[in-house]
Amino acid sequence: MSYLDLTTVEVSKKPEMKPFVPSEQTLVVSEVKERTTQKGGKAINITFEIVGGDYNRWKVTKNFNIQNESEKAQQIGREQLKTFMHCAGMDTTKLEKINDLMNQKVRAKVGTRTDDGKEFLDIKYFISNDETKTEAEVLF
What we know:
Elements (H helix, E strand, L loop, with lengths): L22 E14 L5 E9 L8 E9 L3 H17 L17 E11 L2 E10 L13
Antiparallel strand pairs: 1-2, 1-4, 2-3, 4-5
């Protein structure tokens, strides 16, 4: 006797993926991990999931360089992380543990980028809810 009889199960064709149109999206953090970069630095890797709309549940990943031999790269990574935290309404003076980033919700302009011939979703900038900040101030 077999564990599971699948003879009557019909397999449907995979639906065609619609192209992504660059747009403002609501994102929620679904995964956070610290990783070691190729040159031995540290980055926080955050996976965001789009909430609602035509691209509901699509994922976009962003790396934030937090420790790097290049001071400029480290500065940019930390600025981008602080911008994300500000736009998510978090305390931007410190990050106690990376899991504090989990489930944070934020608005962002999401577009695409091409890497080695493959197209990926890419966060262009986060959008602040704070009336005193402009989008230009939170650009990457």
